[in-house]
Every structure is written in structure tokens, then in C-alpha cells.
Input
Amino acid sequence: MPAFLVPSSVSPAAPAVPPAAAPAAGGPSPAELLDFVRRIAADAALVASLPLDPEGRTWMRLDGPGGSEAWLIGWPPGSGTGWHDHGGSNGAFATAVGRLTEQSLAAALPAEGWTLLELAEDVDRERQLTAGEGRAFGPHHVHQVFNSSAEGHAVSVHAYHPPLPLMRRYGRSGPVLRLEQVEWPEEWA
Output
């Protein structure tokens, strides 16, 4: 068990957290994914082609490098993802327009057998990513991303390898993280 996390509720009857995807041999590295999302974020014509909705996020699926999947995402003011992971995939994202805030955990979660975790102190990280800035991450990354602007849209580019096998959604109350939902690729069509 990682030193950063303490299970606060483990129950044999609780649904297991689905296992992470096995790393795909020969796929793009997080650094290569970051290079890709930065290049796409700099493509003003493509970024401008994304329809923006004042009420909710919009997205367009893109072909990523080396069999990865990629997304162009529009973020209206105040919108965000909530806490989630990427099912064991490596990933990267870059802001193309506006500014996004990323809050993340500097700890890997246990793969299964829990529904609640009590997070240790000092695992929270926060960064601001303005146009042209991005970040890459490995298969155990848990974060939330949001547009804290009260006025303007943000647009970003995201890429994942292997393509997302699932996403786990978490609820958070102070130091307690709760597995709330597992989403499958067919739900994102």
C-alpha cells in the first residue's frame, strides 16, 4: 500500500476498483503524448473549429499518435471534470485557449478492494496551465481539471495511451476519497 494513503473502509462486499490497463508495449510515452497535445493546441484553425456551448463542455475526438486516443475539449466558465483517473493509461493535456486549473494527488491509489480512502497530508498538488502549457502523467494519475474563469471559455487537447479502457470517478470530502462510479468507453461516444 502506498505510504500516502490509508484505507478507511475496506469491505469484502464492496465492488472492487477495476484493475488498471496493462501498459501497452511500443506505444507513445507520456513525453510523446505531451509533444502531440502541444502541437495540436497550437493549431489555431483546429481549435477554432470546436463548437463551444455556454452551458456545458463540448468535445471532438481526434486521432492520436501510435494508436492513442485524443480529444479536443471546450470548457465554459466554471466547468470541470470532478476527481477521476484514466483507467491505467498514460496521458497528457495542454491548454490551447484560456487557463485551466489542475488539482492532483501525489500518490498512487491501491488497485482494488476499497471504496473509501483517507488521504494523508501533503498529497494535494495544484497548477495553473495557460495557453501553450501542458503536462504529462503516468498510469496512476488521479486529478480534477476545471476552468475557474467567470467569463471566458478554455480549450484543451488531451491524449491517452492505451486508449482509455475506463475512467473511475471519485467524490472527495476533505481528506476522504470515495469511489463513486466507473465509466466505460461506450458512454463517451
User: Anything to note?
Assistant: Confidence is low (pLDDT under 50) at residues 1-16.
